[in-house]
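Session log. Operator J.P. requested a structure for one protein chain; no other inputs attached. Running the standard single-chain path with token output.
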Amino acid sequence: MTDDAAPTVLRIGFLGPAGTFTEQALLGQTDLASQELVPMSTIAEVLAAADSGEIDFGFVGIENSIEGTVNVTIDALAFEHDLLIQREVELGIQLHLLAPPGVGLADLTRVLTFPVAMGQCRAWLGQHLPSVELAASNSNAEAARLVAIEADGHSAAIAPAHAAEIYGLDVLAEDIEDHPENTTRFVLVGKNVVPPATGHDKTTIVVLQRTDQPGSLLAILQEFAARAINLVKLESRPTKKGLGDYCFIIDLEGHLSDELVADCLRDVRSKVEDIKYLGSYPAAGVNGPAVRREAEAAWRSADAWIQDQRSKLQG
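Structure written below.
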């Protein structure tokens, strides 16, 4: 009698320390939460570790509904690392002002937080704390941890409610984000793996233009329009090569294994300097599983139809 081999435990790096929204989103994924979770100090560190093989996967924020793209993430994926997006996760964000016990709003002279969160609370801070110093930290939870350690009587942090529990802080103000529909999109990234198509997928690419070619964006968009492929997101980013040198980051509906998507990307690639493929992966959203089930059922029905037609061929 032989023992079965123990299941492989994956190492998944995320933006720490304990109490970040990144950790919260990661723990919401049952299959990922059961792996070895490795907190790291910065998004850059997470992505570099995933690229080097120090960890199996990285889990980082890539977009916020208020502040837009997390530039450090998309730039690292576009220009610094060879990583592919494996899945996306959306998480509703509620930001709170936290301080050590006994500290009130009137005592504050400094507020620490992650720069993206700072931007999400700009109006609230301007109205309620117009004179305080705003200081950046590597993450919201790191801001809470530092405020708890320093306990100087004049500092607070913007962070999740869970961070207050972890670091023994009081909540001075709840839900201080400027817009109630505040959602952050996170991505799991890894090396050389593209998840299979589900019928409800996204593909992300970086399109590098040929320089001094008028109408290049129109030529790109025409390929998607001709095939009725929906673009979920289109933005330009500097390539770091010089002023005026930009690339396009595109999220589109569909999977690389879809013939229509592959045909479109082939034609786009022939018109531009280069395309960097960042992955095809299951699309997030509450309707995602239902859409995938419907797509699978529709495919099975269509496959049965084509098999029936082929059975009628002679010879």
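Operator note: The chain has three domains: 9-93+179-193, 96-173, 195-285.
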